Amino acid sequence: MDKVEYEEYANALELHVPYSPETLLAEEGEKLALFKRAFVETREGAYAYVTRRHVKRLPVPQAGVPVPVEGIQEKTLNEGWEPEDIEG
Questions:
Q1: Which of 5, 15, 17, 84 is most buried, taking the most CB atoms under 10 A from its CB?
Q2: Phi-psi region of 79 (alpha: psi -120 to 50; beta: other; left: phi over 0)
Q3: pLDDT tier for residue 87 given thresholds of 50, 70 and 90
Q4: Distances (CA, A) of 80 to 14, 64, 76
Q5: In 1-88, where does DSSP find H-type helix?
Q6: How far apart are CA 48 and CA 19, in angstroms?
Q7: 3-class DSSP state of 46
Q8: d(CA 30, CA 62)
């Protein structure tokens, strides 16, 4: 694999972007996120291992603290191999 090909994969998989739920949500209260985590290419086609996740801000009550602390909940909705269009 040459450097250009590696960079194409790195960009598609967002390898240069550290995962942070705070950054993902930005100012939104909740978001559905899709992560491509791996690729497999065969003669018959290409596939991506995809994770779909629901990320949500929510108040978390703390004992002895009158104001709840903000927390983040992440729920994986599904994971699996899906056909991938590598032409575009």
A1: 84
A2: beta
A3: low
A4: 18, 43, 11
A5: 3-12, 21-25
A6: 19
A7: strand
A8: 22
Query: For position 72, what pLDDT does the model report?
Result: 96
15: Cβ contacts below 8 Å, ≥ 6 apart:
9
In this structure, what token pair is assigned to residue 22? 């705070």
Identify whether the C-beta of residue 72 lies closer than 8 Å to the C-beta of residue 55.
yes
C-alpha closest to that of 38 among 87, 76, 84 = 84
Model pTM score: 0.81
Domain ranges of the chain: 3-83
Element (H, E) at 79: strand 69-83
Helix (H) or strand (E) holding 48: strand 46-60
Contact 21, 55 (CB under 8 A): yes
